[in-house]
Amino acid sequence: MNHASHPVVRHAPFPFPDGRFPPDLGAVVQRTVAEGRMPALVVIHDGEGDWLIGDGVNDPNLPGSSDVYCIACTTENDPSLSELAGLPPGFAAFRDGPGLPWTVEPFSYEGEQG
After folding, report:
1. What's the domain count of the chain?
2. How far apart are CA 92 and CA 55, in angstroms?
């Protein structure tokens, strides 16, 4: 599937109906995860309602390392991401490897007042 041509929205009313990611909800996803080269080990639902999915290893802020992808499309490669559709804003989920349980904890950006 060509994810670049799939229209996405930045936000959707939360909590999501049926506890599932809306089909058109976008997230900032590291290319290593989106392209299936590395597993998703970090999922962030920040306080502004944005979603971020990373490999937990590489710097997601480097130029060209991340892009916007449909979360529902990303879950096709890793169905365990679907478990996190109920992750509240201001929280992040981490795991040590694919197939391992997610650990959820409060999240804020460095320097942000919580």
Report:
1. 1
2. 13
